[in-house]
Amino acid sequence: MTTPTLWNLPIPVIHHLCASSGALSFVGGAGDFDAAGRIRNPGDLDRQIEGAMANVADALATESCALDDVIRLKVHYTAERDDWEVIAALARFFKADPSPVISTVPEPLQPFSGQTIQIQAIAQRGWRMHSDVRAVPRPMPPERRALFGDRTVTGGLRAGEFIALANRTAEDADGAVQHPDDGVAQTHFIMEKHTETLAALGASLQDCIKFEGYSLYGSSGSTHDRWEPLAKARASHFREPGPVGTVVPCHRLNPQGALAKIEVLAMRELRNGFDKYIPREDHWPWRVWDWPIPLPYRQAIRLRDTVWLGGQWPGRPYDNKWLAVMEGQLMPQTRFTMTYIEDLLRPFGRAPADLKLLVCYFTSTGTEAETIAFTKTVADWLGGVLPPMTLVPMLMYSPEIAVEIWGVAQG
User: Fold this and answer.
1) How many CB atoms lie under 10 A from the CB of residue 262?
2) N or C: which end of the chain has fewer CB atoms below 10 A?
3) Angle at the Cα of 325 from the Cα atoms of 323 and 326, rounded to 5 degrees
4) In angstroms, how far is CA 86 from the centroid of its own chain?
5) What is the dihedral of CA 19, 206, 320, 397, to 10 degrees?
6) How many CB atoms lie within 10 A of CB 185?
7) How far is CA 101 from CA 49, 73, 168, 357, in A?
8) What are phi and psi of 268, to 5 degrees?
9) Which of 297, 302, 266 is nearest to 282 (CA)?
10) pLDDT number for residue 218
């Protein structure tokens, strides 16, 4: 009898598909790959969703998890579909309620030839058996409800201490984008909705450990001029010490008119019947860059045996002038950015070998060869087996910045 072989990414380096840190297990970018790394159904989103979800389940099984243990899915897809269609196609793989949080990002590019979707998962073994499970439904436009039958869509989920909120735009319950053409007002709208969802889960934005944002900047004005007002709008909803964060540009959002999309992860404990803040340890070595305006975020935090990193880019060290080193050179900038990750892990007594997830945004024209060269650069720098990876080829903020990477490490 032949033993089934797990799927692989089509890269010539050894890599993990799933890894655990603390109570959480992470799957990187699962696609419709076979054991040789080939896409089984090139260009076919529906069949790739089937294959990718089967691969998520197989990867999770290596860490004694199942699909019912998933708390959050993060989905990067390339197809002429809207987010609700993709969410509905994925939600049917989860039979138990509440379903996991599903965050979606439409992308112009995928890392490998013929690929239309990649799925990242965060799971926690046995969370449905936990005494503290809370969920908040996500409002959906009336015309999209038929996609889900009589089921609700989860907008926020608390599985014990871990909390995940789906990413969202400034779309209201009727499907209309609020504050069209005003990215700042849209950002405030999103953050206020996240605040409401967290409150319903017994938490607040101060409990956030990680936020991820996507901004449709447009083409007018300098990069910094477009970034700063949105950055200030996001930051106004946090106080120090804030979470670690990653914000990258995007080139399409649903529905039409959306200019920003934001999601958050948080942790809060239940003690003697009361919800309590969980203290976190943070370190910020002097070499690691700072933002050019005062912001409340941190670069690396640890709590519950897990280290969360903010998005690292090749900014000039010991500086906050928003200047890149080795401008526009992807491979040298990637190696340099990985030194920041090493610097951030060191004060926690950890090293890059302790990474359990890497999420990589990198400049590309969309060829598989560019992705393979990028992963080889990361592998050469790490000098060992790659952790689970989400690989997102894209156009970054400016020609000078070619890469941004964040990750999670065993704490």
Assistant:
1) 25
2) N
3) 135
4) 17
5) 60
6) 16
7) 17, 6, 11, 19
8) -155, 140
9) 302
10) 59
For residue 44, give both structure tokens. 């076919």
Residues contacting 184, CB < 8 A, separation 6+: 229, 230, 233
Q: Which residues contact 55 (CB under 8 A, 6 or more apart)?
A: 7, 17, 30, 31, 32, 33
CA-closest candidate to residue 298, choices 169, 198, 406: 406
Give the per-residue pLDDT at 1: 42
Q: How wide is the angle at C-alpha 49 spanned by C-alphas 362 and 74, nearest 5°? A: 45
Q: Which residues contact 311 (CB under 8 A, 6 or more apart)?
A: 245, 246, 247, 248, 361, 404, 405, 406
d(CA 350, CA 327): 29
| pTM flag (> 0.85) | yes
What does 129-191 look like in DSSP terms, one character per residue? GSS-EEEEEPP--GGGGGGGTTPPPEEEEEETTEEEE--B-SB-TTSPBSSTT-HHHHHHHHH
Report the residue count for the chain.
411
Dihedral sign, CA of 77, 140, 55, 45?
Answer: negative
What's the confidence (pLDDT) of residue 2? Answer: 47
Report the distance separating Cα 139 and Cα 173, nearest Å.
5
Give the Cβ contact number of residue 182 at 10 Å.
Answer: 13
Which residues, 6+ apart, have CB-to-CB distance to 274 below 8 Å? none
Structure tokens at 190: 């999103």
Residues lower than pLDDT 70 in the chain: 1-4, 218-224
Q: How far apart are CA 393 and CA 401, in angstroms?
A: 13
CB atoms within 10 A of CB 273: 5
Whole-angstrom distance, CA of residue 107 vs CA of residue 253: 9
